[in-house]
Amino acid sequence: MVALLPLLDAILQHLTLVFTSLAIGISLATPLAILSVFYKRVSYVVLTIINMAQSIPSFALVAIIVPLVGIGFVPGIVAIVLGSIVPIVKNMYVGLAKTDIALIDTGKGMGLTDLQIVRYVRLPLAYPAIFAGLKFSAVIANGIAVLTAIIGSGGLGRVIFEGLASFNINKTLSGAIPAILIALSLDMIFSIAEKKLKSKSVY
Amino acid sequence: MTKIYKESKAINDLSFEICKGELFVILGSSGSGKTTTLRLINRLIDPDEGAVYLNSNDTKTMDPVKLRRKIGYVIQQIGLFPHMTVKDNIGLIPRLEKWKEEDISNKVDELLTLVALPPDLFRYRYPNQLSGGQQQRVGLARALVMDPPLLLMDEPFGALDPLLRMQLQNEFLSIKRKLDKTIVFVTHDIEESFILADRIGVMHGGKMLQIGTPSELLFEPSNEIVSKIIGAENKFKAIRFLQAKDVMIPLDKSCLIESDISCKETINMMISHKIDSCIIKKSNSDIAQVSLIELLNEKDKAKSILAIGNKLNVFASNDTLSSIISLLKSSNESMAVIIDRGNVLGIVRINSVLMNLV
Amino acid sequence: MAAILDTIISVWTTHQITLRTIQHLQMFSIALAISIIIGVALAILVYSNPRLANVWFNVLNIIETIPELALFIFLLPILGLGEKPTIVACILYSILPIMRNAYTGLAHVSNEYIEIAKAIGLTKNEILLKIRLPMALPLISSGIRVAVVYIMGIVTLGGLIAAGGLGVPLQAGIYRYDIPAIIIAALWVGTLGVIFDFIAWVIESRLARRFNPW
């Protein structure tokens, strides 16, 4: 038998892990992406690191957090942010950098500063790309959040690991099924947002 | 061959015959239906009405794949597959026809030699390592690999620069003489059609306006559109006013050699610049021309480039066209070089000048 | 310095990292090979039967969103613990990027090449195998590069379900709070991931350059 209340608790904890990490991810990615748009050298460094980070297995990332930050909820968040920030930065940078030059010139002609152009021209036009990145990032965050249970972050992963340790299939499934449902709903929500923004944008 | 075809009149009640062994040029502007006509012949498209007959057999009764393997096909620009070497491009159909590997190699070498590309240098190159002219030669070699009795060519020299185009046209004519093939050649270039054709068919708006030899079209155009297309009216008058600089083909700087380098260095330079022919300036009055093939055939590769080449007539840029033509005629040369205050500006080909006038 | 070297050697031997690496790469190569075969085969199938394309891509897209560990859980009752579910999970994740790129590559060969291939007398199948497929190679290889990264990640997770490989020392390090083991194993796995991605990138860009039409 699987206790319902602890499961609900785990789900809540899991969602907290995912969304906190996404929020931190966005707030870190935004300045990085904007700086990359304006400074060639920053963009080179950022993109190189990001491309390398993408090829590191997530388990290795989670493990290396232990000596660096320790174990528990916060280290879990750090691991999830590190593992899932790449698509946000990448898509945000590409979205911001690929804005039609003519529109930017129009903005300049109207007397907007560089930052105002980002705020009112580049950013709105980049929304579809940014949301595509957020979707991918959310799906990855959800996957790593399952994994970080191994370093004591709690969440649905803990249910799965406990089930695995005690060979309790029902328990593992009670952790895995909500995790899958969360993945599908994240994918769906961000897909809808992406589509809505795309139909609104000029292109 | 006879065909009638209608499709929003891209081809409109078209009917003509091509004789065995002739080089038949279909001349027309874009949209005249000339390329469509070519594609009807090898069944890349099928007519809505009428039929194409090959040796009085209706092509509709033949398997299109087998039919196409018996018809060579050369097109402008992207004709070679970029993922295959020269050898694989040429040997593709023989390989699919399960020839022996040895036979394929021999055939490829034979054809490369025919189109003046030394097999040892070119066999294993990829198309992006070839110049435009070399690609076009490989394209021709590929079209000839199954020894087809019929060859279709769709503006094969259209994308090349004028100097190279003329060289390839001449080479093509001499290759054609060696082979006994029926060739249908599509072009919008009147000069090219006059140089190459046994007979020319002028197409316009999906119709064949007139078929005839170059001189028939020039002197007996059947209607005004033909004479307009051929441009027979007023160009002869210009011969007295035109100067050398008006009719010359400007010379690309990379085609000009002024320093004392060896044949070998010149060959390397020409291959890396992808040029087939270059001008050697020995002094202000002594200027010669040499082609890559001639250099490759030169026994002593260490010899100075200044010691070889075919000497050219030299004219100033304000010499009149009539004086150039008469001098070239009397010395029986076909090419001259134009200089201005010691700088080589360009070259004049008598054929192209005359054709321009026509 | 010598102390660090000693620690590395001792971790390397106690955790049998050489053996784990061999297991790791074995699973990696098997999974990659099968993914490529299935991915390209499915792409060809879907290319010649495009009505099913959307169904295929939607199903694979859903699999792609499932957390790897959750997928393991679903494979356990069918395949048990160990290498089998790990390799199958790798394949399930990797088919999509390979198949999607291969499909795009097959479908987007420039029409001029198809025309000339037809004109010199290639049949439909010959055009697919001799022209479309080789010309799709650059795109296929970039799909494979994505798959390489996926498979590296999932094989590492396989350590959690008794598949062996380099996930084992990572897991052991975390459970025993053995910091040197964690650092060495994580750095080693990370380095392998970066190296394999780099190799895939080199192959990809070589192909892209060769196939770049002039």
UniProtKB/TrEMBL annotation, chain A:
Gene Ontology cellular-component terms listed = plasma membrane
What keyword terms does UniProt attach to this protein? Membrane, Transmembrane, Transmembrane helix, Transport
Gene3D superfamilies given for it? MetI-like (1.10.3720.10)
Topology of the protein relative to the lipid bilayer = Multi-pass membrane protein
- Bilayer-crossing regions: 12-35, 42-65, 71-89, 125-152, 172-193
Its GO biological process terms? glycine betaine transport; transmembrane transport
* PROSITE patterns tied to this protein: ABC_TM1
Q: What is its main location?
A: membrane
Q: Which domain of life is it from?
A: Archaea
**In which compartments does the protein localize?**
Cell membrane; Membrane
The family note in this entry says: Belongs to the binding-protein-dependent transport system permease family.
Q: What is the protein name for this chain?
A: Glycine betaine transporter membrane protein
What species was this sequence derived from?
Candidatus Methanofastidiosum methylothiophilum
TrEMBL record, chain B:
Q: Which PROSITE patterns match?
A: ABC_TRANSPORTER_1, ABC_TRANSPORTER_2
Give start and end of each ABC transporter domain: 2-230
Q: What is its EC number?
A: 7.3.2.6
Which SMART domains does this one have?
AAA
Q: Which Gene3D superfamilies match?
A: CBS-domain, P-loop containing nucleotide triphosphate hydrolases
Indicate where this protein resides in the cell: Cell membrane
Q: Can you supply one Gene Ontology CC term for this chain's record?
A: plasma membrane
Q: Which domain of life is it from?
A: Archaea
* Annotated Pfam families: ABC_tran
Gene Ontology MF annotations:
ABC-type tungstate transporter activity; ATP binding; ATP hydrolysis activity
The protein's UniProt keywords, in alphabetical order, are: ATP-binding, Hydrolase, Molybdenum, Nucleotide-binding, Transport
Q: Under which main EC class is this enzyme filed?
A: translocase
InterPro entries to which the protein is assigned, alphabetical: AAA+_ATPase, ABC_osmolyte_uptake_ATP-bind, ABC_transporter-like_ATP-bd, ABC_transporter-like_CS, CBS_dom_sf, P-loop_NTPase
Transport in keyword set: yes
**Catalytic reactions on record:** tungstate(in) + ATP + H2O = tungstate(out) + ADP + phosphate + H(+)
The keyword Lipoprotein appears for this protein: no
Ranges that cross the membrane:
none
Query: Any idea what job this protein has?
Result: Part of the ABC transporter complex WtpABC involved in molybdate/tungstate import. Responsible for energy coupling to the transport system.
Identify the PANTHER family for this entry.
GLYCINE BETAINE/PROLINE BETAINE TRANSPORT SYSTEM ATP-BINDING PROTEIN PROV, GLYCINE BETAINE_PROLINE BETAINE TRANSPORT SYSTEM ATP-BINDING PROTEIN PROV
Q: Which family does it belong to?
A: Belongs to the ABC transporter superfamily. Sulfate/tungstate importer (TC 3.A.1.6) family.
- Which proteins does it associate with, and in what oligomeric form? The complex is composed of two ATP-binding proteins (WtpC), two transmembrane proteins (WtpB) and a solute-binding protein (WtpA).
What's the protein here called?
Molybdate/tungstate import ATP-binding protein WtpC
TrEMBL record, chain C:
Q: What residue intervals traverse the membrane?
A: 27-49, 147-167, 179-203
List the membrane topology term(s).
Answer: Multi-pass membrane protein
Ranges where the ABC transmembrane type-1 domain occurs:
21-200
The reply on keyword Zinc is: no
Which cellular compartments is it found in? Cell membrane; Membrane
- What are the protein's UniProt keywords? Membrane, Transmembrane, Transmembrane helix, Transport
InterPro entries xrefs:
ABC_transp_perm/SBD (IPR051204), MetI-like (IPR000515), MetI-like_sf (IPR035906)
Gene Ontology biological process terms from the UniProt entry: glycine betaine transport; transmembrane transport
The record's annotation in CDD domains points to:
TM_PBP2 (cd06261)
One Gene Ontology cellular component annotation held by this UniProt entry: plasma membrane
Q: Which SUPFAM superfamilies match?
A: MetI-like
Similarity section: Belongs to the binding-protein-dependent transport system permease family.
Q: What is this protein called?
A: Glycine betaine transporter membrane protein
Q: Which organism is it from?
A: Candidatus Methanofastidiosum methylothiophilum
